[in-house]
């Protein structure tokens, strides 16, 4: 069972995993260096532990102990019990969901391991906003997609904001990073997937038409600003667009992914 440790000093070195959570660049460096990630909120902490991620420690206000008692009973990691004011001082924001956990990252699986048995996968290129990445994972998981592949420069799905927005879907939906950006879509084609790029290209057809009759689908999404790179747009086997009205030409990539996943799930 987790050891409950009362902490009253915000400078306590044992709280290092939770310090300055709003400093994105600092957190990227710290989490990569120490092989950790953070989960926030009772539901997300529970899902991370249930998915097999090993806790390093927990940080929470006393009123959250009962709600996570069963989770704390499964580990010998320390649980630092702090006031809500101290938690805000350490993390840099009001932890309104009450509980945080620091967990160990696992080695990423291979592309073949992630794609084994998959019929529908999402492929993300240079989506750099953590909120968008988390929302795409949540939509993919909710609408029956089997896996996510990320280009090397995509945002980290295990960054705290991504995990929170995804409501833990990053723990249940298999994912990994593509080792070869240049030939990534061609490699998926050789594995039996039909690559369908969501784009405003002139030859794009409505997404319902693009995914019709496709067995193994790789739905390809581009960055928040300029969309897909010319390389990926041109090497995709099909190009698809979500028809728009009222003079709007596109949606935020997270919203577009939800629409496209819904359509693709009913192909």
List keywords for this structure.
267 residues, alpha/beta, five-stranded mixed β-sheet, 34% helix
Commentary on this structure:
Helix content is 34%, strand content 19%. It has 267 residues and is α/β, with parallel strands linked by helices.
Q: What's the main sheet like? A: 7 strands, parallel
Number of helices: 12
Helix-strand makeup class:
alpha/beta
Distance between the termini: 47 Å
Helix-residue proportion: 25-40%
Bin the strand percentage: 15-25%
Strand order of the largest sheet: 8-7-6-11-9-12-10
Q: What does the radius of gyration come to? A: 20 Å
Count of individual beta strands: 12
Give the rounded overall mean pLDDT: 95
Give the SSE string.
EHEHEHEHEHEHEHHEHEEHEHEH
- Described by the principal axes of the CA atoms, the overall outline is elongated
Instruction: Show unreliable segments.
Output: none
């Amino acid at each position: 069972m987790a050891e409950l440790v009362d902490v009253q000093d915000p400078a306590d070195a044992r709280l290092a995993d939770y310090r300055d959570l709003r400093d994105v660049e600092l957190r990227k460096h710290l989490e990569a260096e120490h092989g950790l990630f953070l989960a926030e909120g009772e539901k997300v902490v529970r899902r991370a532990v249930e998915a097999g991620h090993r806790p390093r420690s927990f940080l929470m206000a006393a009123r959250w102990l009962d709600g996570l008692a069963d989770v704390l009973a499964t580990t010998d990691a320390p649980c630092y019990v702090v006031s809500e004011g101290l938690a805000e001082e350490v993390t840099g924001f009001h932890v309104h969901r009450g509980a945080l956990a620091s967990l160990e990252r696992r080695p990423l699986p291979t592309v073949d391991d992630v794609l084994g048995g998959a019929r529908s996968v999402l492929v993300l290129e240079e989506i750099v906003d953590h909120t968008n990445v988390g929302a795409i994972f949540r939509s993919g998981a909710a609408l029956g997609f089997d896996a996510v592949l990320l280009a090397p420069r995509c945002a980290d799905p295990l960054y705290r904001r991504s995990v929170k927005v995804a409501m833990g879907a990053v723990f249940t939906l298999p994912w990994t990073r593509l080792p070869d950006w240049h030939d990534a879509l061609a490699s998926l084609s050789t594995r039996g997937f039909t690559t369908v790029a969501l784009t405003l290209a002139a030859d794009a057809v409505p997404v319902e038409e693009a995914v019709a009759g496709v067995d193994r689908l790789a739905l390809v999404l581009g960055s928040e600003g300029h969309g897909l790179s010319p390389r990926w747009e041109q090497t995709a086997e099909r190009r698809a667009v979500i028809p728009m009205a009222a003079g709007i030409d596109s949606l935020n990539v997270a919203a577009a992914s939800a629409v496209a996943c819904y359509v693709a799930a009913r192909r």
